[in-house]
Amino acid sequence: MRIEDYALIGDMQSAALVGRDGSIDWLCLPRFDSPSCFASLLGSERNGHWWLGPTGRKHATRRRYRPDTLILESEWDTPTGTVRVIDFMPPRDVNPDVVRIVEGVSGSVEVSTVLRVRFDYGRIVPWVRRTDGHLQAVGGPDSAWLHSPVPLKGGDYAHRATFHVKEGERLPFVFTWHPSHQSMPAEISAEEQLHETESLWTEWVSQCSYDGPHREAVVRSLITLKALTYAPTGGIVAAATTSLPEDLGGVRNWDYRYCWLRDATMTVDALISSGYIDEAADWRAWLLRAIAGRPQDLQIMYGVAGERRLPELELDWLDGYEDSRPVRIGNGAVEQLQLDVYGEVMGSLYTARTKGLGADERAWSIQRELLDYVAEHWDEPDEGLWEVRGPRRHFTHSKVMCWVALDRAVRYVEEFGRTGPVAKWRELRDTVHAEICDKGYDPVRNTFTQSYGSTELDASLLLIPLVGFLPIDDPRVAGTVAAIEKELLSDGFVLRYPVAEANDVDGLPGAEGAFLACSFWLVEVMAMQGRKKEAEELFCRLLALRNDLGLLAEEYDPRYERLVGNFPQAFSHVPLVHAARALS
Ligand SMILES: OC[C@H]1O[C@H](O[C@H]2O[C@H](CO)[C@@H](O)[C@H](O)[C@H]2O)[C@H](O)[C@@H](O)[C@@H]1O
């Protein structure tokens, strides 16, 4: 199954991927970053999956989300009739549920299901027993129940059923997870939950303030971003998966089920720009808890509840998506120094205030501490926003974002009457600006460069006009944009840095696709330059890369004409929202 063949369903605490063939191949419970119950995405069916569809197992004839929701409807036309499967995860009460309603649309269709629960990332084959017609799977700390309208028979470490669905019939299957030491959870009503889930999403979408071009794509991206938020804490994960490869068959496989300050602040910006202030408030509260403590202990990512230890481990029993090994959980980048995050946090908090988020004394005192840190460390080399695994460098983008941190601090004082050493911040802001223009700019080629003294380009330099570091008509900005368009395009999409030099640039073997966020940044820059037609064309080409449900992975690989990397990815959906706005 290609990455674009998957749909996302979720309950804002975790999410599942449902294949075009009706198989749930990825589901971690109870949280995004918990061990999985179904992990065939990263291995084989033996690592857990739940298939449900017409006997014979074919791709759905059509599928869609119910308008303005995360409720998936897959339909199969068969020689004997049409059947629909409605998949969703209801808003959580106590335990997480996955609901699958099989609906006869016309005629009579033979439908089958195969359930293989495997806890702990495909490793634990649970003990399964039938009680009062229900199935219970238990393994270690995990337990799952399947409430099924038809009996399932066991064999070969799987449970199966085949049955007929006639026009007008609706057969609900409910899969519920709970800790194995607790007793059986109360059974939910699938139809009531369908109604509630539909209302939740449509009501949320009705608050969207965006009314410009490409609204449908924007709304789908916003729903996807909302689905990546962890409702109990306000944290936001970068993607719903781990280890979907950036290089098919390669080693660039990372766990994105955590809350990056960078990705989360960008997500908050996109939500705020579309009228969603509550999410910004929740995220600020999450941030204050997560980073509480000494500024030097700030991490660039945390668990969804603010956990700090996210050790990177390799799961050697999983073969990886299309043999892309290793499968990793945890993320070693947690230890890195990435100076850009200070600018992203300060920028996002500033934007939220300008859009109506109320003042918070604790927030300002933490912001001041972060600024003290920036003042002391801005001139150090770091790993940068791409989280390179090679040696630290003076990345130009990191320095630009340090300038953003100082600039937004000054604006906070000027616009919101905050107190702080504003004269010092102004002076340092100018010092940082001057150094970047001196050391991060190559006058011979008339372009900013990836890092001080390097000749490489980097797509993050497209952010220079977007964050207000220099105006769009500055000749150095024009030169940088032109150089990126000349040297960093692959099939018209933007690479984050030259892939040929990938080994040198990021310390990793292999190549990768075009990083989708960077192409959306180019759309915004083109729009700012008044190149509306080119911007619109590139935007439409990017929209065409989304799958049939409007979802994007982290990258698109022109070599294979496929989406690659974790999926769906906030970092791709965020700039889609901004680029659509730029075109309006
Ligand atoms: O390129 C190597 C790095 O790749 C991952 O980082 C990328 O994903 C992050 C989450 O979306 C994003 O914030 C970052 O900008 C991307 O480069 C991975 O998480 C790193 O461990 C890895 O070193």
From TrEMBL:
Any single GO molecular-function term of the entry would be: hydrolase activity
Where the record annotates domain Trehalase-like N-terminal, the positions are 2-149
A Pfam family that the UniProt record links to this protein: TREH_N
Which residue numbers delimit the GH15-like domain?
A: 212-580
Q: Which UniProt keywords apply?
A: Hydrolase
Specify whether Lipoprotein is a keyword of the entry: no
InterPro entries in the record = 6-hairpin_glycosidase_sf, 6hp_glycosidase-like_sf, GH15-like, Trehalase-like_N
* Superkingdom, taxonomy of origin: Bacteria
Q: Does the keyword Hydrolase apply?
A: yes
Name used for this protein in its record: Glycoside hydrolase family 15 protein
Q: What PANTHER family does the entry give? A: GLUCAN 1,4-ALPHA-GLUCOSIDASE, TREHALASE
